[in-house]
Amino acid sequence: MNRGGSVPDGEELISVPVRDERDVFAMRKLGRDVAEAVGLETQDQIRMATALSEIGREVLGETTETFATFLLGQDSLVVRIGLPEQAAVQTADGVTLAGRLVDAIELSPARGTISMLKRLPPGRPRPSVEEIRARLAKLTPTTALDELRQQNHELAATLEEVIQLNAELQETNQGVLALYNQLSEELEETNRGVVALYAELDEKSAQLREASTAKDRFWATVSHELRTPLNSIIGLVRLLVGPGGEPLADEQLHQIQLIGSSAETLLNLVSELLDMAKAQAGRLDPQPSQVDLVALAERLRMSLRPTGGNRVRLTTRIAHDAREMLVDETMLTRVLRNLLSNALKFTEEGEVTLDVSFDAATHEVVLLVTDTGIGVPEEHQERVFEEFYQVPGPIQVRTKGTGLGLPYARRLAEAMGGTLRLSSVAGAGTTVTLRLPSRDDAMPSVGRVLVADDDAEFRATVRRMLSGVAAHVDEAADGLVALETMAANPPDIALVDLLMPRLDGGALLQRMARDERLRRVPVVVVTAAGSHQYPQEASAVVPKQGLRRDSLLAALRRALEQAEAR
C-alpha cells in the first residue's frame, strides 16, 4: 500500500513503545508535541495526533508490542511504526482515515513498518534536531484522562470552526441565490427585449420587401409608360426635319433637333431604368446569337467620339481566337458602350483601349476597357456600382450623367452569365474587366433542361448559364412541381437541389427512379451540401457555392455521357 508517494527516511528525534491503549494515548500526545516542535500549524498538529491514534488502535489488534519512531526529514515529519510480517492492516478503516489526514502513508513489508509523512510549511525557520530532542526530553508524562480532555478540547474547537464555516456558507448561499434571482430577472427581461427586437426586425424586413417590390413595380410601370410618348416625340421630330417636311428656318431646325436629341437621351435613360428593374427581378433573358466582335468593336469606335479631341485616342484590339462568340449582341453592345463612354468622358489626355482575348483556362472571353484618365479613388471603387452614385470631382460637375452606367453594365453582364470588375489608381487611369462565358463547342446541345430549386435567383442564374446550350429551360420551386412539370414534358436532363420544401431532392430522385418515363433522365445534383452526401441515383454533382458556367457544363456533359452509355 502506498498513498501519496514514497515516504523517505530522516534523522531520529524520539522513539516510544506502544504496548496498550495508554501507550496509544501517550503516542498521540507525543505526536502533537513533536509536530509543534518541528513547526507544523495547529490544525496539522491535530491531524498528525489523530492519525497516530487511528494507526495505534489498528496496531494493538495485530501485536502486543511495537515502537513508534519520529524522524525529521529535509522538509517533512515522518512517523514509522513497526509491524510484524503477518500484520494485515492495509484495508483497515483506521489506516484509510489516517491516509486522509497526512500527506503520505506507506506500508513496507520488507521493513515490517507502516510510515506516515506530513510536509513542513516552506520558508519557516525550524530548530535543529538537537534542539528538538532536548525540548522533547523535558516533556512530562500525561495520563489518559488528560489526553482525553485535550481531545475533547480539540473537538470543541473544531466544532466551533465548523459552526462558523456553516454560518458563512449559509450567508454565501443566500448571496448566490439573490444574485441568481437577479440574473434570472435580467435574463428574462433581456429575452423579452430580444423577442420584441426580432418582431420589429421581421416587421421592418417585411416593410423593406414591400418597398423594394413597390420600387421595382414603379420603375417598370413608369419606364414602360414613358416610352410611348418619347417614341412619339422622336417620330414627330424625324418627320419635321426629314425629307418631305416643310422648310424650317435655321433656328427652328436647331431647336427641333435639340428636342429630338433630348428625347432620345431620355428614352435611353428610361430603357436603362426598365432593364435595371427587370434585372433586379431576374427577368432579363439574353437572346444569344453568333456575334462578330471585330465588326462590333469597329461600330463602337466609329460612333463614339473622344471628348478630348485629338488629345485622346480610342483603339480596339481583338485577338484572333476571340473574333466571334455566342452572346446577346444588344446587351453586349450596351455594356461596352457604357464602359467606353465612361472611359472617354473621364480621360482628358492619353488613350482609351478595348482589348478582347480568350481565356482558355476558364473558357471565357475577356474584354478589357482601359483608360489613362483621372481614375477612381479606392474608397469609391465599390460604390460606383450603386445606382445613381457619382464620384465627386470637377469633371463630374462638367459632364452629364445619372450614375446608372456602371450599375446597368454590371446587371447586364450578370444577366449574360458573366462578371464585371473595376480596378483603378487615382490619377493613373482605370481598367474595367468584363468576363463572359464562351460556348464550349464540345458541349452537346440539349433540348430541354429542368432546374428544380427553391431559390428563384439561383434558377435565373442557371438559366443564364444555359444560354446557347439548352433549347428550353423549365423551372420548379419544389419537388412536387418538378414531378408535375416532368410528367407534362420529360426533360433531357435535370438539375436538382437536395434541400427543397414539400418534396426534397432525395425523395424526388426516388420518385423518378420508380417512374418508367423518368428513370432514364440523367440528374445533376446542385446543392450546398458536401459532394459525398448526394444520392446514388444522381449522375453528377456540382457545388452551389461559387458555381461557374464551365463546371456546370462539364457536369452536364458527364451526366449525358453516362446516360448514353447505359
UniProtKB/TrEMBL annotation:
PROSITE patterns listed in its UniProt record: HIS_KIN, RESPONSE_REGULATORY
Annotated keywords: Coiled coil, Kinase, Phosphoprotein, Transferase, Two-component regulatory system
EC identifiers of the protein: 2.7.13.3
Gene Ontology molecular functions: kinase activity
Residues annotated with 4-aspartylphosphate modification: D497
Catalytic activity: ATP + protein L-histidine = ADP + protein N-phospho-L-histidine
Alphabetical list of PANTHER family matching this protein: OSMOSENSING HISTIDINE PROTEIN KINASE SLN1, TWO-COMPONENT HISTIDINE PROTEIN KINASE
Protein's name in the database: histidine kinase
Species annotation: Streptosporangium jomthongense
